[in-house]
């Protein structure tokens, strides 16, 4: 038996301890916000918060969670009452296909929970592991900057650097 606390609710699941957290969330707890993207921890569509850190749920076996709390996009708000980051993503039209958005929001939430006023560099570094195949990086970052009360970068060079940093992606 595996015990998990997800979005503040304790669950006991009769699943194999090697089951990826993503599968437990989607298949056993019916929380479908985290998406299966690559299964290799290279895209970030499956990002959730484990403890206080953004994590690729496709890579973490449920047995590795221990007593750390898990938070998914479902914990941040609802369609009727979106949380601040969700509202900013809507206002900035940050989603094109929408597949990456839950992971992007959860990665940003983990940063803002630890550091509500990150620098531009901290924001870019933190968001780099998550990819948006549609290329809405500038709108995603604008939404996060709004919630973090960060200024908009001044130059086209800053925008190019922003897009380049996020488009490269990286390991977590």
TrEMBL record:
<protein>
    <submittedName>
        <fullName>Aerobic-type carbon monoxide dehydrogenase small subunit (CoxS/CutS family)</fullName>
    </submittedName>
</protein>
<keyword id="KW-0560">Oxidoreductase</keyword>
<keyword id="KW-0408">Iron</keyword>
<dbReference type="InterPro" id="IPR001041">
    <property type="entry name" value="2Fe-2S_ferredoxin-type"/>
</dbReference>
<feature type="domain" description="2Fe-2S ferredoxin-type">
    <location>
        <begin position="1"/>
        <end position="76"/>
    </location>
</feature>
<dbReference type="Pfam" id="PF01799">
    <property type="entry name" value="Fer2_2"/>
</dbReference>
<dbReference type="InterPro" id="IPR012675">
    <property type="entry name" value="Beta-grasp_dom_sf"/>
</dbReference>
<dbReference type="InterPro" id="IPR006058">
    <property type="entry name" value="2Fe2S_fd_BS"/>
</dbReference>
<keyword id="KW-0479">Metal-binding</keyword>
<dbReference type="InterPro" id="IPR051452">
    <property type="entry name" value="Diverse_Oxidoreductases"/>
</dbReference>
<dbReference type="GO" id="GO:0046872">
    <property type="term" value="F:metal ion binding"/>
</dbReference>
<dbReference type="GO" id="GO:0016491">
    <property type="term" value="F:oxidoreductase activity"/>
</dbReference>
<dbReference type="Pfam" id="PF00111">
    <property type="entry name" value="Fer2"/>
</dbReference>
<keyword id="KW-0001">2Fe-2S</keyword>
<keyword id="KW-0411">Iron-sulfur</keyword>
<dbReference type="InterPro" id="IPR002888">
    <property type="entry name" value="2Fe-2S-bd"/>
</dbReference>
<dbReference type="InterPro" id="IPR036884">
    <property type="entry name" value="2Fe-2S-bd_dom_sf"/>
</dbReference>
<dbReference type="InterPro" id="IPR036010">
    <property type="entry name" value="2Fe-2S_ferredoxin-like_sf"/>
</dbReference>
<dbReference type="GO" id="GO:0051537">
    <property type="term" value="F:2 iron, 2 sulfur cluster binding"/>
</dbReference>
